[in-house]
Specification:
With about 575 residues, the protein is an alpha+beta fold. The chain is built from 20 helices and six strands. Strand 3 (about 470-475) and strand 4 (about 485-495) form a beta hairpin.
């Protein structure tokens, strides 16, 4: 009997520990005051924006009685999103991102005040609704590149996943709660006060941005120009991982986006037009649930593979939704689709932050947002057009199947996407091997096993040592000349939880203190043999400061042992065996 309370307490602690693994990681809010202020400010303004969006559609229909007039509001969004996002990204890479975002917020306030002034008239006009909504959308589009590229400058790389999840909470909470709050306000409050409230909701964001430190991509950055915009697109095209996950998301949204069919489904399948709101809300609810329970995402090893899997989950859920005859099942499947899409979005953000240099992050973020904004519109057009010549079910089911097929084809076309996992470190020890070196794999000529070592340079040569562990080498010489540097040790700097789990230990100094250890920690296998080192999943970044280098004899060889071709960062505690050499 005396043991039962202790056991019950232990059980409760175990349950709390299990629950904590799923909980949203709020470490970026605790440790980064600037990010915390910005997060709260943006969260409030986003809810205000969602409320105003509903109010605008309601007022437009109230004044015109035309669904076409309401639909044309989308053009005030789409045109800036397809044009000004890219221009704004170039501006964000050239100037202080804090100031760019201040311009964005002030512009959105001007647009909201214009809507409030129009609503205060005894006879509100229709044309100001389009004009001021265009002002809001244009201001947002100009600043979205700066807004989305601030996070990596405000939080440590180890918190990118948590910060991305936190950012998604504000957007999804606004998407779920904003329309509901708007419905209550429209019923009881005059529209001019709704718009004025939206204007006031930006105060927190403006104050938070004003308190940020100066955030520049590079002090000597070129001024924004057509050439700098083109350079942003060229960068995306040159990066197979970024281009790959852009295309995976585009594929999912074009073929698996049936929201334009929700009104028809509510009427013809479920017999109640008022149910359409639940259909629109279900994906956002699933996405919000993922954001609030995003703890396990920090343990995802291969984030690119995660994007492919969750985008495929979206497609499978949408295809199943096409057959759903019960409302509860339809909502469950749409929620599951939103869950998959949100996981994909968080993983894409983390990869974008980690891969993209800060000097082009504004442009790449602008390009990404343009793609994210445009693809669903194209998808709704595709779904509506196909349904008009076939049926609702065929349009939805075929779109979901096409989404899954497209994800699989893109995974095959961009294999590097499947290998990205966000782990890395600082090189502290290498060994050199050249063509004349009897200890080198290339000394006796080229074979199928060592072919990569013969060039071209800048590629990874990966082999298995003693049939036990993998070793990573950087090919260094001109093509045809077998010279490489064996990476013997790293100082781990990113993805530490993943590295510890792979190695089955906590000691930071021992995670990568040997060629086999570091390959195990980084997840490097034969799949990486022959891959270029200047594109993901690899990334080589020059040090800001050159460390003091000491030399010593190489380890684990029986030939040319007299050569001091082992190079080490002096004083590093992360070196491999015989650290005092």
């Amino acid at each position: 009997m005396t043991d039962e309370p202790g056991l019950a307490a232990a059980d409760r602690r175990g349950l709390r520990q299990q629950a904590s693994r799923f909980a949203l990681d709020i470490a970026p809010l605790r440790r980064n005051p600037a990010f915390r202020r910005l997060w709260f400010g943006q969260g409030i303004s986003f809810i205000g924006t969602e409320i105003a969006e509903v109010a605008l559609a309601y007022q437009m229909y109230q004044l015109t009685g035309s669904t076409l007039a309401v639909g044309l509001i989308s053009l005030t969004h789409l045109v800036p999103l397809l044009t000004l996002t890219v221009i704004g990204g170039a501006i964000a890479d050239a100037f202080d991102r804090r100031r760019v975002m201040l311009v964005q917020q002030v512009g959105m306030v001007v647009g909201s005040l214009g809507l409030a002034a129009n609503a205060a008239l005894s006879h509100p006009r229709v044309w100001p609704l389009y004009v001021f909504q265009f002002v809001i959308s244009a201001a947002f589009s100009i600043g979205v590149g700066a807004q989305r590229s601030m996070t990596p400058q405000l939080v440590d790389e180890s918190h990118f996943m948590a910060a991305s999840a936190l950012n998604s909470v504000t957007s999804q909470f606004g998407a779920v709660g904003g329309p509901g709050i708007a419905g209550l306000l429209i019923k009881f409050v005059d529209l001019k006060w709704v718009y004025l409230g939206d204007s006031l909701s930006y105060v927190g964001a403006i104050a938070a941005v004003a308190l940020l430190p100066r955030l520049v991509a590079r002090e000597d950055a070129d001024r924004p120009s057509w050439e700098s915009i083109v350079a942003g697109f060229r960068y995306v095209r040159s990066q197979p991982v970024i281009l790959g996950f852009f295309l995976v998301d585009t594929n999912a949204m074009i073929f698996g986006m049936p929201s334009a069919l929700f009104p028809a489904i509510a009427v013809h399948r479920f017999g109640d037009a008022s149910l359409v709101g639940y259909l629109y809300m279900a994906p956002a609810a699933g996405a919000l649930l993922v954001s609030l329970l995003s703890g396990p995402l920090r343990h995802v090893r291969r984030q690119g593979l995660g994007v492919v899997i969750t985008a495929s989950l979206w497609g499978m859920a949408i295809a199943a939704f096409g057959f759903a005859q019960q409302l509860w099942l339809a909502l469950l499947l749409l929620g599951l689709a939103g869950l998959g899409d949100q996981i994909s979005a968080i993983l894409r953000s983390v990869m974008l932050y980690r891969i993209t240099p800060k000097q082009v992050l504004g442009r790449v973020s602008g390009i990404e947002f343009m793609q994210v904004a445009a693809a669903p519109s194209v998808g709704n057009l595709e779904a509506g057009a196909l349904a008009s010549v076939t049926s609702l079910r065929f349009s939805i089911v075929s779109g979901g199947i096409a989404c899954v097929a497209g994800c699989l084809l893109l995974a095959a076309a961009f294999p590097a996407l499947l290998l990205v996992d966000g782990v890395g470190g600082r090189i502290v020890e290498v060994e050199a091997y050249d063509q004349e070196d009897p200890a080198s794999h290339g000394h006796r000529g080229q074979t199928a096993r060592n072919a990569v070592m013969f060039g071209p340079p800048g590629h990874a040569y990966v082999y298995r040592s003693y049939g036990i562990h993998w070793c990573l080498n950087l090919v260094c010489a001109a093509e045809g000349v077998p010279e490489a540097a064996l990476i013997r040790a790293l100082e781990p700097t990113s993805g530490l939880d993943i590295q510890r789990r792979r190695r089955g230990m906590d000691d930071l100094r021992s995670l990568c203190s040997g060629p086999g250890k570091l390959c195990q920690a980084l997840g490097i296998t034969r799949e990486h043999d022959g891959l270029a080192l200047d594109v993901p999943p690899f990334e080589l970044v020059e040090r800001n400061e050159v460390p003091e280098i000491v030399t010593g004899p190489r380890i684990g060889i029986t030939r040319a042992t007299e050569l001091s071709w082992r190079y080490m960062s002096a004083g590093s505690p992360f070196l491999s065996g015989r650290r005092r050499a």
